[in-house]
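Allow me, if you will, to draw on your knowledge of protein folds for a short while. I have a record of one protein: its chain in single-letter code and its fold written as discrete structure tokens. Could you please explain, in whatever detail you think fit, how the structure tokens follow from the sequence? The record follows directly beneath this note:
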Amino acid sequence: MINRRDLATGTAIAAAATWIGTAAGAQTVAPAQVMPPKGPWTKFGDLQRSGGKLHYAMIGNDVSRPPIVLLHKLGGWLSDWRFVAPLLAQGRRVIAFDLPGHGGSRWLGTPPYIQSLGETAALLVGALDELGIDRIDLLGTSLGGCVAVPLAAFWPERINKLAIISSALGVRRSLAEIAINVDEKQKALFDAAGNPIPTEPALLEQIFGMVHAAAINVDGIASRKAAGHWIQPSERGVAITDIAGTLKRVAAPTLLVYGDRDKAYPKFRPAAEAALKHGRTAIVPNSGAFVMQDNPPATAAVLKTFLDEA
């Protein structure tokens, strides 16, 4: 997800959240109809969870090893992984989820003020149970990386290996701080109707060091439109969680991943490295923060090396 810890400096502009109309009562919130880019996926599915459904996509059929689970960024969708997934699926089964309210995952009623990381992690564990999956290799970026931390910390028996990619691994913020830094300071990012102010590729270059900013920006505008009002509740869930402290509970071998041109997330690296029991760091060359989109082959190579180690 975006490093909203720096909203006061204006860095949040690069990740304008998309707020679209929400339904009332017990009606399903229907984000704008945006079709994700076609990917390599061979199977799609929906898992009914309490309050909504989780959408997922699969590629690969080999079940001799634990499947790889992919979680996307704030305001993203599982299609963010479409270039990396087939490279990881060589001899593996890969499952990518749309997080609550994002992509094809739909929830009843209006979004909550806070969608906590613990809630989302529990939903994913329930989904894995329904799919009959006991253990996974878990790879998450941004919001997905933040969700992966409590999932790995509180369900250690489910995680074989963990990779946290370009994520804001910060400390807990109070409700008052969230009201200032997420609510008030983001007003300028939306029009009077709550629709997002369009972003420019230059902002991705400036804030995240993106190399292929133009194409990634187009993709991001579409995925944020699909996520709509679920972006800020998810962001507040990150802000209210002591992710840095929770990292100390993670027992699985963990890889921290950053792009070599990333300007947003490396500041979290020292504390994360110190907190992890079995952690190390890898750098993806020629890439900004969204490495799976900016340099998919190199990202896949870094992740495969980690996952294939005994």
Notes: Residues 201 and 218 are 8 Å apart (CA to CA). The first helix runs from residue 85 to 88.
